Amino acid sequence: MRLISTCYIGDIMMKFKDNIDLQMVVCRNGLLVVRDDPKGLEFPWGPKPFAEVVAGPLLRNNRQTTDSSSLEGHYVGVYFSAHWCPPCRSLTRVLVESYRTIKESGQKFEIVFVSADRSEESFKQYFSEMPWLAVPYSDEARRSRLNRLYGIQGIPTLILLDAEGHMITRQGRVEVLNDPECRLFPWHPRPVLELSESNAVQLHEGPCLVLFVDAEEEGELEPAKELIQPIAEKLMAKYKAKEEETPLLFFVAGEDDMSDSLRDYTNLPEAAPLLTILDMSARAKYVRDVEEITPAVVEQFVSDFLAEKLKPDPI
Question: In this protein, which residues make up the domain named Thioredoxin (predicted)?
Answer without folding.
Answer: 44-206
